[in-house]
Amino acid sequence: MNEAFIVEAVRTAGGRRNGALAHWHPADMAGEVLNALLDRTGIDPAAIEDVILGCVTQAGEQGFAFGRNAVLASRLPVSVPAVTIDRQCGSSQQAIQFAAQAVLSGTQDIVIAAGGESMSRVPMFSNIALHAREGLGEGPFSERIRQRFGVETFSQFEGAEMIAAKYGFDRETLDRFALESHRRAAAATDAGRFDSQIVPLATVDGGLHTKDEGIRYDATLEGIGSVKLLKEGGVVSAASASQICDGASAVLIVNERALKEHNLTPLARIVNMTVTAGDPVIMLEEPIPATKKALARAGMSIADIDLYEVNEAFAPVPLAWLQALHADPAKLNVNGGAIALGHPLGATGTKLMATLVHELRARGGRYGLQTVCEGGGIANVTIVEALA
Question: Would you say which domain of life the source belongs to (predicted)?
Answer without folding.
Answer: Bacteria
